[in-house]
Amino acid sequence: MARAPLLQLSGISLTFGGNPMFDGLSLSVQPGDRVALVGRNGSGKSTLMKVMAGLVEPDRGEVVASAGTSVGYMEQDPDLSGFATLGEFAAAGLDVGEEYRVAMAAEGLKFDPERPVATASGGERRRAALARLLAEAPELMLLDEPTNHLDIQAIGWLEEQLSDTRAAFVLISHDRAFLRRLTRATLWIDRGEVRRQDRGFDAFEEWRETVWAAEDEARHKLDRKIKAEARWAVEGISARRKRNMGRVRALQAMREERAAQIRRQGTAAMALDAGPQTGKRVIEARGISKSFGERVILRPFDLRVLRGDRVAFVGPNGAGKTTLIKMLTGEIAPDTGSVTHGTNLEIAVFDQARAAIDETVTLWDALAGDPDMRVSGRADQVMVRGQPKHVVGYLKDFLFDEAQARAPVGSLSGGEKARLLLARIMAKPSNLLVLDEPTNDLDIETLDLLQDILGDYDGTVLLVSHDRDFIDRVATTTVAMEGDGRAVIYAGGWSDYRAQRGEDAPVVTVAAVVAPAPAPARPATAAARPPGLSFTEKHRLEALPAIMERLEAEIAKLSEFLSQPDLFQTAPAKFAKASEGLAERQAALAAAEEEWLELAGRDEG
């Protein structure tokens, strides 16, 4: 017997600021559903989730939860007023004796339940709200960006909790690895329409492109039909005394249909100018260390960053990633050792706290008021990569409309603030780009574009991120802050780092075409091994097929890249780097295949 849906939305219509956000929307959430809710920034994802949670009343339609169903909601900006500590807020509503659930969640999410609400950061407040939802254990969980402000370890812990839960959940996130791991259905908001596919996020991009291709084909056919009918209406008048008014009305209806079609929102017109070329050596750090009181942030550490490198820094929150980058860029001095910069260095910084933007000024003044961007004698012009451009025009390049130009920066969403900061950074030439948590709040399409831009950027990139997929797509080197002041350098991105540590890597997409990949260590000969497999070897045997599949995909992508006939002449550095990467991956694949055969044979024996 079919079970009733946990939540049913019927005929929902909602209008904000005169523009309809949803019209006649109907959808349901079934028991056991694991749903990704996706769409562009501003498409209405959070609003729809608030409608589902009963916090926003629709203009028309109804929201009905099945009798006895408990629905929990984790919002982006929780209200903790009236509570003294984070733990008190997280435990509100729990029965006596169930407070241990908050303690367990606090340990996994890494926040102190005794922290006073008055001194808690925004990230700590969000983690407390997430802990509250997990402790309540409702039958349906609505999670709005739960991974923001979580480090990779905490994201992994949350993945395990949601993977093991029997509750249904609807999940908004820009973390593709997180969505791929957890979801089995996708709700896609696109220009006011909500579509559902009963496949997880892993299939979303293919689905989206299929839908858009069908739309483009239908629009093209309609345009051709309108053109043909319009030609008939004009050219046939002289040959007929009486027009076929039915065809004329049909032509008018087609024109109205075409005018009503809502074009897809474009992507931001981002670009980077690498500025003057640096020397081959960009940064040379020798024996640098840092402590704050008795707390050791970094033990003596050496790092050489060469022109064109993309270096990712990973590790738990508070491990010292940002501090290390500030030492490398010269913003703070190390306690010991030295940092030497190469020639012609021009640094641009995307900071985690968005501190470079004054939230009290307007978007216009945030750009035109910047001394580095101001055009002398023109209050309405900004200098963009050496060329003057109107402020509003440049804002439109980053998907802001004219009405927002005079709005205060503080009124923007997190994603919009990130785009505004990118607009400032990308207006100026740079050859060393420092990105501290750039992926927070950016939608998937903008992340894709940023990744492509970084791939074409001739400068050097230092990146701090907890987005495993983005690290895999961008990084050529990973520096892992492994605790107790230890920093260890690994070749490649996140999954390469995990593979080199012998850990099971999450499912990720192909890394950037120029990222080097180390060959896995070759196993000892079978004669030197005892029969049977250890726990670690069994784990490795299970992980190897995914590693080989990833290497095969990267080899195919590199081979395609190198097949460009004029690549060697037009971009010899990229040709050399890609060739080196191809050879390394071919060696890595051969070693992985040999290792798999050896382990599989012993496992069967």
UniProtKB/TrEMBL annotation:
Coiled coil: none
Gene Ontology MF: a single term: ATP hydrolysis activity
Reactions it catalyzes: ATP + H2O = ADP + phosphate + H(+)
PROSITE patterns in UniProt: ABC_TRANSPORTER_1 (PS00211), ABC_TRANSPORTER_2 (PS50893)
Record SUPFAM superfamilies: P-loop containing nucleoside triphosphate hydrolases
Family: Belongs to the ABC transporter superfamily. ABCF family. Uup subfamily.
Protein name per UniProt: ATP-binding cassette, subfamily F, uup
Native source organism of the sequence: Paracoccus solventivorans
Phylogenetic classification of the source organism: Bacteria, Pseudomonadati, Pseudomonadota, Alphaproteobacteria, Rhodobacterales
